Amino acid sequence: MNGNPMSGQETKSTTIANKLEEEILSKKYQAGENLPSQHELADQFNASSRSVREAFKNLEAKGLIKVRQGKKAVVQSNSLDQFVESLSASMMNKHTPDKKLLTDLMQVRTTIEVSATRELSRDPNRMLIVRSLDRACTRMEHLLPSLEGGKDPELLKQFKSTEFDFHAALIKSNDNIILSSIYENLAPQLYSALDRLPETYSEQRKKVNEYRYLVDALENGQTDLAVALTLVNLTNIKDKFETLDL
After folding, report:
1. 239: left (phi > 0), else alpha (psi -120 to 50), else beta?
2. Residue 162 and residue 143: Cα distance in Å, rounded?
3. Cα 66 from chain centre
């Protein structure tokens, strides 16, 4: 949509849908309000009526509009919550646990976090989130010595919960509403599986050191280092996860 040529019917319908979705989510068009007519939109985007109809189908599938008789489209919702919940439910409507689903979700987490890390390292207003990451990292550092030589179940639970909070803070800094919401809905299922990952004390210590390096890299705006640290961490977790027998 941003600067892409509107050549080809599919590109035009996608461009129209994306623009209207942006305007609906920003409440330029409120729930209950009619969108411009198909003819008006076709003129506005220099597109065919068919392209506009395809865009309407896309928005209707997401629960944002309802196309009434006479081809008028009325805004049904100013959020994607219903669409996200429906998509998440359909993904989870399988026997549990589903390793393919969980593996795909691991990839979603990697995609979101790497993107979020890159953008966060460049954000001049990043320190609020960085401080949140720093607190989680400090908490893991304080818990770490108690895990050596024996694994107190309660302390280990606190450690893993804090680690999940660290990742959640990164994910929430990402501005991809759909991916982040899908991840949030499916995260409990993923975390339940990740709880079963075996880790030695030296692996935990190495991981906490990497989290500390990541916090420092984000604070100092070292984009390449921050992205590399995030990718290495998540790849290591993904590799271990794939060895689990679910």
Report:
1. alpha
2. 10
3. 27
- Distance (Å, whole) CA 114 – CA 238: 14
**Per-residue pLDDT tens over the stretch 69-110:** 767 899 998 887 777 666 666 655 654 556 777 777 787 788
Instruction: Report the candidate in 212, 232, 234 with the shortest Cα–Cα distance to residue 130.
Output: 212
Is the alpha carbon torsion for 171, 172, 178, 183 positive or negative? positive
What is the predicted pLDDT for the residue at 6? Answer: 39
Q: What is the DSSP letter of 33?
A: P
**Which of 66-75, 89-98, 199-208, 226-235 is predicted with the least confidence, judged by mean pLDDT?**
89-98
C-alpha to C-alpha distance for 23 and 13, rounded to whole angstroms? 15
Whole-angstrom Cα Rg for the chain: 22
**Using 50, 70 and 90 to split pLDDT, how confident is the model at 229?**
very high
Please, how many CA atoms are within 13 Å of residue 15, restricted to the half-sphere of its CB?
20
**Is the pLDDT confidence value at 194 over 60?**
yes
Q: Is 3 left (phi over 0), alpha (psi -120 to 50) or beta?
A: left
Rounded Cα distance between 210 and 221, Å, is 16
Phi, psi angle pair for 48, to nearest 5°: -85, 160
